[in-house]
Amino acid sequence: MTGYVYNMIPDKGSSTMSFFVCLRKFWIITIIIHQAFLSTAALRNPPVKLTASEITPSSLKLSWKPGNQDDISYIVQYKAKQHPGDFHEIKSIKKTEYTIEKMEAYQQYELRAIAVTKSGRSSPSASLEVVTGELAPSSALRNVRARPQDMQTIRIDWDEPEIPNGIIQGYKIFYTTNPDLPVVLWMNQEVAGENKMTTISDLIPNNTYTICVLAYSSMGQGPLSVPVQVMTRQEVRVPLQPRNLRARPISPNEIEITWDAPEDIDQVVDYTLYYNDSQKHTNNQVRVLPPTTKYILTDLVPDTIYHIQLAARSSRGLGVRTILVQAKTPEFIPNEPERVQVQAVNATTIYVEWQPPRPMDRKGTIRGYYVYYAKVDQNNNVIMSTEKIEDVNDGNKNEAVITDLLPNTRYQVTVAGYTRRGDGVRSRPKIINTMEAVDETDKEFSVDEVTVKVPSTSDNCAGKSNQSELSAGGNAEGELQEPKSSQSQSKAKTLKELKMEYYQQAIAGLKVQTECFAKVSKLADVLIAKFSST
Predict the structure, then answer these.
(1) In CA terms, which of 29, 156, 239, 510 is 20 to 30 Å from 186?
(2) What is the pLDDT of residues 184-204, one digit of tens each?
(3) Are 132 and 107 in contact (CB under 8 A)?
(4) Does the residue 237 lie in any domain?
């Protein structure tokens, strides 16, 4: 920009000349300010003499000396050297020490500190590298492989754990012909140092051995590896065991099975895939032809655990099966509930009950049910915009009472269960007609040729015969009695049937009692009038 000004010098006294003179002064001032800023920044010294103490597998204390007399606070930066990415920052530290926590065991960390003064942040201090403390291995050995060398010997090799948490000092091999025994009762063999291969000898010919391996450090033992099984050789040699059998659900009805071919793949003519489920406990087999090492099981039951094994076959026979693996299909929406029944209770209430779908049709954990009800016309067609939903938010309940309906009205009722995946299939529609409304207007009766009005049930009448608090199915004193119809039947009724009958009896009883009370009351008035006149 400055060169551009000197290459185009306008006439003295012109306005253009004044502009470029001002522009030049602006750049000079900017340069001076920038140099002053750099000079000020240079005065901010970073902390010095960083030291680490109290080192554990997950924490350490970092200390330092101030680089300036007017330090306000400090910033600590740290990161594991083997992990790419930026430093983690901890700000607003008032002291000259800080304990960093939640670190990884046996990791090399790079640490540094920054001073904060009134004029800003200093540059980072010189880095300090520290290795955190050791722990026992926290992950199992990888890719444990076992194969027979002869009728009494098996060779085993493996890869070290992904998270050793320290220096591996050796390995332990556990093996048995009875995997149901506790591991402490298995035979074992130790391999010291960094060697990741061994053989176990003096085995029983033509027997299947289950093998696990673990690593250990000065801080303790790591977890056992996934078991592998191998059969000692027999006179007629069969294929080795397929490796790394894996199962992954890909839909509510499908599981993908993958594996690695055995080392003697040239002898394999086919694979036999075994699977059964946790509900039906039926054993199924599938034949898979090489070189395929993947198969998708279909037509499975949702929300079900499947047990899967694989064996290779040669012209000499079937080899040993792999260790059993498990996979669970995800939930799906349930099928419709069964045996849906609907009963009218009174003019505005209906009672709905149902049974849950069969276990194989539930396709998951049923969390509740939706009861759908809507008005229908004389042809049982749903009237638009009249459908409502009652949510029974309990998968163990199988009944609902729907209230606030219209008297003498036809309704269609359906029920559907729901899981986490959504609403299930609705049941077949049930049509129900609510009862007619009780006529509560005043009625007329004739007593001795005198026409009188009977008060409605809404009037306040004295006497126990008009108690509005009458319990469902009770007498005038509120005692619960079984309806006569059920007493005369030899077949016992269910509790739900009795509840419904008591409910209906109570409603009918209130109406009859009100009418009787009105008649008796009016008759008493007439008799009193006659006696008074005499």
Answers:
(1) 239
(2) 999 999 998 888 999 999 998
(3) yes
(4) no
